[in-house]
Design a protein that fits this description.
Elements (H helix, E strand, L loop, with lengths): L2 E5 L2 E5 L17 E6 L5 H11 L2 H6 L2 E7 L2 E6 L7 H7 L9 E5 L5 E5 L5 H9 L2 H8 L4
Parallel strand pairs: 3-4
Antiparallel strand pairs: 1-2, 2-7, 3-6, 4-5, 6-7
Length: 144
């Protein structure tokens, strides 16, 4: 059962045991995916996107893919990914209605790890990723 708590001034849902996201299957066991759902005026989505892209090295080190859903389009912002269906993503991720901001982090195992209704700072996002058991195991490998 998801639990909701405040992380700073951001509503956050941390999900445990969430079902795998089939539409993001191409990323499973390869990448963590952050899906940004654009708000009507794109202000919060643009802020989230700009914050993330300011630390490309941090994203790359954590095998991140960042996707932006705006209207009916899904656009890769960082990393690869293509041929994704906006409606399927919205349904599977229980995304906000079109025109409302949201961001969802999907782990390498394909399950939802975090949902936010306001932009999250890079420091907060990367700390959440770094606290995941799979990330901890990756950092122990000599090639990382």
């Amino acid at each position: 059962m998801p639990k909701t708590f405040l992380y700073g001034a951001t509503k956050v849902e941390e999900t445990n045991g969430a079902q795998a996201v089939a539409s993001l299957e191409q990323f499973r066991w390869k990448s963590r995916v952050l899906v940004i759902f654009a708000d009507k005026d794109n202000s919060r989505a643009a802020r989230q996107e700009n914050q993330l892209l300011a630390d490309r090295t941090g994203l790359e080190e954590r095998d991140m893919v960042v996707l932006k859903v705006s209207g009916s389009t899904v656009k890769p912002i960082f990393g690869g990914g293509g041929n994704l269906n906006e409606k399927a993503l919205r349904k599977e991720l229980h995304a906000p209605e079109a025109g409302e901001f949201g961001a969802v982090l999907v782990g390498k195992d394909g399950t939802v790890k975090l949902k936010v209704s306001e932009p999250v700072s890079n420091g907060e996002l990367l700390a959440i990723i770094d606290s995941m058991p799979m990330r901890a195991a990756e950092s122990l490998k000599p090639d990382k």
